[in-house]
């Protein structure tokens, strides 16, 4: 549910883009939505607000959410400053490829990979399953980043905006389901074991 809630800024991005040409009036201020640029401004504002609300409600922030805010701010800001949608086209690719490098690289650093370090205090799984989960997530990020560029440059801006929303929802749900299916067979074994502290192998 948390991952789906994080898609709200993307939904607002999509809606704003679809309202291209609409004039918005707030008091004496008026603005005509100009497609990708207005949508990008909304994406930056919504992502920033999401981070603020998350901090207010939980008093903590995941690094991934901060990285997302940084990517949206940098690439979205460049899109608005230079009036060039190329920057926002590249944002999902750079962000996902960076995650793929971080997750994949964690396999070679330390005794536990990034997913096990993050979820190891909640789940007790065989080392092989943690490794499979790691490469599942790594491949997902790499694939999402690659497909984003293909769609952006082969299908056009309007198609890309729709793809950006629906693919984000689709890949998130698919990744969640596959992850759950990989974990499920081991949940019974975990419940049957006596709970033991997970060593910190930093």
The dominant shape is: elongated
Q: Which spans of ≥5 residues are poorly predicted at pLDDT below 50?
A: 194-202
Strand content: under 5%
User: Could you state the order of secondary-structure elements as H and E?
Assistant: HHEEHHHHHH
Number of strands: 2
Spatial extent as radius of gyration? 20 Å
Calculate the terminal CA-CA distance, rounded to whole Å: 30 Å
Report the mean per-residue pLDDT as an integer.
87
Q: How many helices in DSSP terms?
A: 8
Helix percentage: over 70%
- What structural class do the secondary elements suggest? mainly alpha
How would you describe this protein?
The chain has one domain (2-187). The longest helix is centred in the C-terminal third of the chain and has 36 residues, at 157-192. The protein has a two-stranded antiparallel sheet. It has helices at 2-5, 8-18, 36-58, 63-82, 86-105, 114-119, 127-154, 157-192; strands spanning 23-26, 29-32. Mean pLDDT is 87; it is low at 194-202. It is elongated and about 60 Å long. It has 202 residues and is mainly alpha-helical.
Spell out the key features of this protein:
single chain; 202 residues; 4% strand
In short:
By secondary structure, the protein is mostly helical.
Note the topology.
Elements: H1 2-5, H2 8-18, E1 23-26, E2 29-32, H3 36-58, H4 63-82, H5 86-105, H6 114-119, H7 127-154, H8 157-192
Antiparallel strand pairs: 1-2
């Amino acid at each position: 549910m948390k991952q789906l809630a994080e898609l709200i800024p993307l939904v607002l991005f999509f809606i704003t883009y679809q309202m291209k040409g609409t004039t918005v009036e707030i008091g004496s201020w008026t603005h005509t939505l100009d497609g990708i640029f207005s949508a990008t401004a909304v994406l930056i504002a919504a992502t920033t607000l999401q981070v603020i609300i998350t901090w207010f409600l939980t008093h903590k922030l995941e690094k991934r959410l901060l990285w997302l805010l940084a990517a949206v701010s940098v690439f979205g800001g460049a899109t608005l400053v230079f009036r060039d949608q190329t920057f926002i086209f590249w944002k999902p690719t750079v962000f996902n490829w960076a995650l793929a490098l971080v997750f994949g690289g964690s396999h070679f650093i330390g005794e536990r990979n990034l997913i096990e370090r993050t979820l190891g205090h909640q789940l007790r799984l065989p080392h092989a399953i943690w490794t499979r989960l790691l490469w599942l997530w790594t491949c997902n990020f790499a694939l999402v980043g690659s497909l984003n560029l293909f769609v952006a440059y082969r299908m056009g801006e309007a198609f890309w905006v729709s793809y950006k929303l629906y693919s984000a929802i689709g890949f998130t749900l698919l990744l969640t389901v596959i992850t759950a299916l990989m974990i499920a067979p081991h949940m019974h074994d975990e419940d049957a074991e006596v709970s033991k502290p997970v060593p910190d192998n930093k």
